[in-house]
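Service request form, structural biology core

Requester: graduate student, group of Dr. S.
Request type: structure prediction, single chain
Budget code: on file
Notes: please return the result as structure tokens.

Sequence provided:
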Amino acid sequence: MKKTLLFALAALLVLTLFAGCNGGESNTLTMATNAEFPPYEFMEDGKIVGIDAEIAQAIATKLGKELKIENVDFDSLIPGVQTGKYDFVMAGMTVTEDRKEQVDFTQTYATGVQVIIVKEGSKITTADDLFKEGANTKIGVQLATTGDLYCTWDIEDEGLGTVERYNKGADAVMALNTDKVDCVVIDNEPAKVFVQNNPGLKILDTEYITEDYAAAVSKDQPELKADIDKALGELIADGTVKTIIEKYIPAE
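Core staff response, request fulfilled:
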């Protein structure tokens, strides 16, 4: 009788602890990002900060959730969401048809522009120079970003040049500084930071491509996607998103 009672109490304790753990988990939103993309996400004093981090926090607050941010390689973001490792992704991620087949996207909250970084005095003076027959341009990109995707489709697959892929945008810029590549294709905002920190580099006046950023959610989580989308829509409508973006990218 005593053994039965002890067993029942032990089982009840396990169930209580398990329920407590589940409750904590369900009250947490885990966002995955790649903190190599200032001003959208970057490290500061050991903490992930930036536009996406602040918007994600505002979304979590609206949903009554605690926010946890994981910093991972860019090419691990979508697989992580697909397997349920992360709840959603915000990483200056562009909405593309390819990615829409893998994940669901919320409404867009920002517009990005892919630009070209070159050395001062480079023979590359416009985006059109990347498409010249015989130029055989070496282009540095961050692995799995839209710069990588577009340059692969437009240039490498057409035999007009080669794409050199790096885990970090900063590594691609370092390759440009050491003449391992002829240019770097990357988003305009981090490009400004890289050029500011690397004398002798410049951004070409002509854009490579314009794109929309959104949060990515697993196709198996339509309710979560709807909740995040609703919260994001309210934050756009009340001006919170605009305020956060202008904090990092002042209107000119």
